Amino acid sequence: MSASARPLRLALSSLAPGLLAAALLVPAAQAGPSFPPRKPGLWEMQMGQVEGAKGPMVVMHCVDAATDKLMQDFGNQQPKMNRKACKEETRNEAGKMMVHRETCQEGATKVNTHVVISGNFDSHYSVQSTTTYEPPRPGRATQDMRMEATWKGPCTAGQKPGDMVMPGGMKMNVIELMKMAPAAAAAAGARAPAR
Q1: Computed over its alpha carbons, how large is the radius of gyration of the chain?
Q2: With bands split at pLDDT 50, 70 and 90, how would you rate the model's confidence at 72?
Q3: Which pLDDT belongs to residue 29?
Q4: Residue 31 in contact with residue 135, Cβ under 8 Å?
Q5: Sign of the CA dihedral 152, 123, 9, 46?
Q6: C-alpha–C-alpha distance, residues 118 and 124, integer Å
Q7: Helix 174-191 vs helix 16-24: crossing angle, to nearest 10
């Protein structure tokens, strides 16, 4: 694992946000102390909302140290691009656990995020994220997310670092998704109505 966690905050295109966010939930988060890269090989990531009843989404992700560094560097750019309205951040590292808290203002809504990351980044780690909205968003005052990541062994034949296998067998590469981000942001700006 290569950085602290800021879950599901990356906007790319109509397809990419959830997919890239899934891969970057831990490794590419906000600026902060660096962590050792995850053990190279194939990681199984089970992600889902704690309150959801449909079970977790499972993604298989092939990584190496260079890929984790690229993801960390990408994540470290996000505070400059997307997080100007975040008023406070605190971190507390103790052994193999990190606790992260922050408060951001999104329009009229105050967003409080609490993330706990724990585990061994050579074999298994978990991320628990709780976000509260003040005032509540339509139909939701709190959002709980959890990810469990387990090292499964070497990447399979034909895989290269960054490759992800999504539910249903869909394949993509997180490095290619990161390259899409600037173009997607520019396209979104071009579509925005003039003020």
Answers
A1: 16
A2: confident
A3: 41
A4: no
A5: positive
A6: 9
A7: 130
Helix (H) or strand (E) holding 120: strand 109-120
Q: With contact defined as beta carbons under 8 Å apart, do 169 and 178 qualify?
A: no
**Would you say 38 and 123 are in contact if contact means Cβ atoms under 8 Å apart?**
no
Could you identify the residue written with the tokens 């067998």?
A: 169
pLDDT single digits (tens) 115-138: 888 888 899 988 888 999 999 888
Which amino acid, one-letter code, is at 60? M
Distance CA 59, CA 167 (A): 6
Which range among 30-44, 86-100, 133-147 has the greatest average pLDDT? 133-147
Cβ–Cβ contacts within 10 Å for residue 147, how many?
22
Pick the closest to residue 113 from 126, 97, 124, 127 (CA basis). 127
Closest CA to 171 of 182, 162, 181, 184: 162
By CB neighbour count within 10 A (0-12 exposed, 13-18 middle, 19+ buried), where does 192 fall?
exposed
| 35 touches 1 (CB < 8 A) | yes
- Give the span between the Cα atoms of 12 and 19, in whole angstroms: 10
Q: How far is CA 154 from each of CA 53, 67, 119, 157, 159, rounded to the nearest angstrom? A: 32, 15, 20, 9, 10
